[in-house]
Amino acid sequence: MSDGLDDLERRIDGLRAGVRKAMRARDGATARVLRAELRAAERAWDALVSGEQPKARAEGPRLVTVREQVHQALALLGAAAQPRLVVAVSGAFFAGTIRSAQLTSLRRDEERSFRSTPHGRPYYLCAALTDRLSSARGLLTLSTWPLERRVVGPLSPRVDFLTCAIAVASAGCADEGALRLLARMARNVPGATAADLGPPDPRRIVEAARAELSVHAERDTRDRAELARRATSQLGDVARLFGAATLGTIKEETAT
User: Looking at the record's lineage, which domain of life comes first (predicted)?
Assistant: First the structure.
């Protein structure tokens, strides 16, 4: 439990710092989103300390639209994720009802909304950016995350998977769906599963994921920082969220 508490406390500290930064910049929209994430993290901390399941599961779906359900799942994961993982987290922790097929056109809808009314929403579901600063196919992120968390270098897919595994293991939910998800993720983390293949041990998974993460984190952080600098200097507001246009995307947009 202590590892999960440590992770949540670090996340809470980071969110509080983000709220303060947004308030100093008078960015009310970002501050509101970060405060919502902070409240969710604090509820998860309370549930982990008390041994209770998160209230979101007991009370049924807290969010109505597909967009809101995706946001909540990504906020829990804290890293770029494939639609199938977003769907699994939403269902396991928030009684979500979304399906992968519903996410296919979601990013395009978000981009159209942003182009129509820039910064008109508190957050946008947007693409991760590749080393070419184009959108990474099938990787969803949140616009409120810093660029360093929304770009992906050579090691980033593995780093993000380990980050997501730690987040799921630290969420403190004993629901059967959450345990199945955790067991699937643990199979892809060396040292995270026991020889007897019993129920997943969240503490063991966190320790194993952290151990591997320590090997990749420094290099990945450097790569992401460089990509973020390039994105900041080369891209406009739309491209920083949804990726620079490529010949392929131009052909797709022309066809539609």
Answer: Bacteria
First to last CA, the chain: 50
Residues 6+ apart with CB under 8 A from 87: 73, 96, 98, 99, 100, 103
Cβ atoms 52, 143 nearer than 8 A: no
Q: What is the pTM of this model?
A: 0.72
Q: Is the dihedral of CA 115, 119, 122, 128 positive or negative?
A: positive
Please tell me what DSSP assigns to residue 246.
-
How confident is the model over 1-37, as pLDDT tens digits? 455 667 777 778 777 877 777 677 666 666 667 777 7
User: Residue with structure tokens 């739309």?
Assistant: 238
Mean pLDDT, residues 214-227: 96
Token readout for 168 is: 């799921």
Say whether pLDDT at 184 is over 50.
yes
Residue 74: name the closest of 148, 143, 19 by CA. Answer: 143
Q: For residue 30, give the amino acid letter.
A: T
| Dihedral over Cα of 174, 193, 207, 128: its sign | negative
If pLDDT is split at 50, 70 and 90, which confidence band does 246 have?
A: low
Structure tokens at 147: 């660029």
Contact (CB, 8 A) for 205 and 81: no
Whose structure tokens read 């699994």? 88
